Amino acid sequence: MPVRYTSDDEDSSRWNGFPFRSGDIVVSTRSKSGTTWVQMICALLIFQNRQFPQPLAVLSPWLDRTTQPLDTVISRLESQKQRRVIKTHAPLDGIPIDKRATYIVVGRHPLDMAVSLYHQGDNIDRQRLRELTGQPEPATPRRPRPDLHSWLLRWIDRDTPPAECLDDLPGVIWHIRDAWARRSAGNVLLVHYDDLLNDLDGQMRHLAARLDITIPRTLWADLVDAATFDSMRGRHAELIPNSNGILKDSRAFFRRGSSGAGAETLTAEELAHYYKRVESLAPADVLQWLNRTTSIPRL
């Protein structure tokens, strides 16, 4: 049985009994690791047009999110005639693995992911989220958030088990570590955020090949342009998952779109501490693949 991962607005058990179809694509990522980017790329490859018949979040729903009835989400997916792209923030051990589907797991340097997550936290309307998920009002007011630097240092040292909080460092590492162990399977593909940044054209060609999708040469440049960060930011209202008004400002979803923010926030000693910390969480080959945006400081 898959592991059940839950949060205030997620429940991976919603995948239980999911009616897969041949050609389904599952995009599995940690928060703020390039989820929408890879969903966008997959949709561009499938439709071969930068304009979609519906908003991206409707075409490629976040199945584990509890803000919409599961029956509604499944019904919309079953009505689609083209290849389907389904989003999850659960690791692969939390969802069914079906041989008819392709699973794309996206990794990003954990420090950069964490900085983006911190800023995303300020953009969430907590009251609206409680309304949609039926959560009670907190008994005491939320304490003010610490500044980014203090928060990031605490995040590095938190030792929460993945089943309790996937967005803490052990959960972030576990998501990739689990996928890494499955990478020899023909239907599991790992993609790194920095590879998309550095060679979007090449990565899109690689994904098209792995998904067995042929793109006419005359369309290729336009599709790659549509997948750039600037193009996506300009279409934020069509692309981000905010139909229920959980985000205060949809434009802020695409905040920076580059790497290195984590290293910029920490001193050399603090960065070295991070690298020492993750040595206990994953094998060296996993960490070498994941931690690629900053060099390990030598103190």
Give an overview of the whole structure:
Helices cover about 45% and strands about 10% of the residues. It has about 300 residues and is an alpha/beta fold. It has one domain: P-loop containing nucleotide triphosphate hydrolases (Rossmann fold, 3-Layer(aba) Sandwich), CATH 3.40.50.300. The strands form 2 sheets. Strands 4-3-5-6 form a 4-stranded parallel beta sheet, sandwiched between helices. The protein has a two-stranded antiparallel ribbon with strand order 1-2. Strand 1 and strand 2 (about 10) form a beta hairpin. Helix 4 (about 110-120) packs across helix 6. The longest helix has 13 residues, at about 35-45.
Question: TL;DR of this structure?
Answer:
This protein is an alpha/beta fold and 299 residues long.
Secondary structure layout:
Layout: E1 6-7, E2 10-11, E3 25-29, H1 35-47, H2 56-59, H3 70-79, E4 85-88, E5 102-107, H4 110-122, H5 126-133, H6 148-157, H7 169-181, E6 188-192, H8 193-198, H9 200-210, H10 217-226, H11 229-234, H12 236-239, H13 261-265, H14 268-278, H15 284-290
Parallel strand pairs: 3-4, 3-5, 5-6
Antiparallel strand pairs: 1-2
Helix pairs in contact: 4-6
Mean pLDDT: 88
Radius of gyration: 19 Å
Percentage beta strand: 5-15%
Can you tell me the CATH topology?
Rossmann fold
- For CATH, the homologous superfamily is named as P-loop containing nucleotide triphosphate hydrolases
Which characteristics define this entry?
single chain; 299 residues; alpha/beta; Rossmann fold; 4-stranded parallel sheet; two-stranded antiparallel ribbon; 15 helices; 6 strands; globular; disordered C terminus
